């Protein structure tokens, strides 16, 4: 049984955990998260880049600016870190992938598609491979795909992400390749993953790992949340934001 009252930092994945895929978190999640921010520090670490964090998390968040000092953002799987200061959101660090390497990653994706005989769906929504600077992300249905389409695709016969990753791995041994929740594959610099993000939280926020708890929907083998486990952090696996809300309600009842 976890002693929630002893936790000083609550860490959440974003997409599929605090909000449905690529959509803003709803009013109920906003209310619960705002209450938690008034009592504890909160970090959000996700595969999306900062514009996605703004859309899904910051824009719908209604807590006061004073409380934002308790919120810490780790976009693109922990490859950058932002915290709220007197002048607004301030970047603490950013691990940019060199432009030549980003082009190489694009090429490796294309070669992997050919190697495994992967064919893109006939209908896609926006970019399939996106350059996020600190991360390159493949989205099988496109960056703007409707949530219901993504959920139907995930785990279907068309979902061949594990094969694609296996084909890419020999050519990108100097990078991390992870599978997030629904339709994506993320590539970051070697050593940069959500486990690295937890270590940065420990070192930069001065919170021991045993005083943290992580909640995410991709803690399974190969998922982009799985690397947090190597830090020894307590984890809570969920399947959707509604399950996250249940945990938040319970935790708020014990967090004075």
The CATH first-level class of the largest domain comes to Alpha Beta
Q: What is the number of independent domains?
A: 2
CA(first)-CA(last) distance? 18 Å
User: Could you say which overall geometry the principal axes of the C-alpha atoms support?
Assistant: globular
In spatial order, strands of the major sheet run 5-4-3-2-1-10-11
What's the CATH H-level superfamily name of the largest domain? HAD superfamily/HAD-like
Average pLDDT confidence is 95
**If helices are DSSP runs of H or I spanning 4 or more residues, what is the number of helices?**
8
Helicity range of the residues? 25-40%
Beta fraction of the residues? Answer: 15-25%
Within the CATH hierarchy, at the fold level, what is the topology of the largest domain? Rossmann fold
Query: Radius of gyration over alpha carbons?
Result: 18 Å
Poorly predicted runs of 5 or more residues: none
Number of strand segments: 11
Please describe the biggest sheet, giving its number of strands, its sense, and whether it closes into a barrel: 7 strands, mixed
| H and E order | EHEHEHEEHEEHHEEHEEH
Corresponding CATH architecture of the largest domain:
3-Layer(aba) Sandwich
From the helix content, strand content and strand pairing, which structural class follows?
alpha/beta
